[in-house]
Amino acid sequence: MYPTTYHRPSSLAEASRLFAEAGDAAYISGGHTLLPAMKTRLAAPENLIDLRHVPELRGIEVTSENVSIGAGTTHHAVSQSGAIRQAIPTLAAMAGTIGDAAVRTLGTIGGSVANNDPAADYPAAVLALSGTIITDRRTIPADAFFRGLYETALEEGEIVTRLSFRLPEAAGYAKFRNPASRYPMAGVFIARHRGGEVRVAVTGAGNDGVFRVPEMEAALARDFSAGALKGITVSPAAMLSDIHGTAAYRANLVGVMARRAMENLGSAVAID
């Protein structure tokens, strides 16, 4: 690590002002992506602006169409919310599988999505649930938000304030975790929406981060069952390959986790 100046704003306006005035600055919430990057000197901001104490970033709202979650809401709060459990039980269950108790207590939904960490769970949920990312400047649909590993449509200094998810008719999530890090090597979130639209999103496995699988979506739109996915594969050429698993291994995991997600609709399954 190296010297950095810590700032604790109490409003969005103050956070934005600090960012503009500080020069070399970075926002931090849970810190589970930024702090490891700082420890390895992959990131070196001179100023850290902590968003955890900004009240505008809190709160959960549920309507007949959507679930809206403040960006500063922790994974634990999402997992324990009765309103979310009733509206989108798979989303709450997925939040309860993230990391360990310490990670869930500190990590936030906004930080997870804003960093687009390839090992994060939430990006798959945002894509599959046709989510919307609300910032202090605009509203961005999920399909236009994620742009590659650690890359998003966010502009310099822009703050994610809320995330909105469409209420699906059915949803399921399954992931295979690296036994050491607990990060998903492949996680698949599947959601069927009104009108028959099906969205399948994969996290943890792709070269370019979270992505959708059109072939699976089309098959499930015709027959919303695990059997409909038989024989559908993803290309290893689009998969990550490292010491934990080859591209071919991850490609196979995507198919297996998609079937597990379909077999556990209304819940989330984490496999070690």
Automatic annotation (TrEMBL):
One MF annotation (Gene Ontology) recorded for this entry: oxidoreductase activity
SUPFAM superfamilies: CO dehydrogenase flavoprotein C-terminal domain-like, FAD-binding/transporter-associated domain-like
Entry keyword Methyltransferase: no
Coiled coil: none
Keywords: FAD, Flavoprotein, Oxidoreductase
Top-rank taxon: Bacteria
Residues in FAD-binding PCMH-type domain copies: 1-170
Entries under Pfam families matching the protein: FAD_binding_5
Identification of the protein by name: Carbon-monoxide dehydrogenase medium subunit
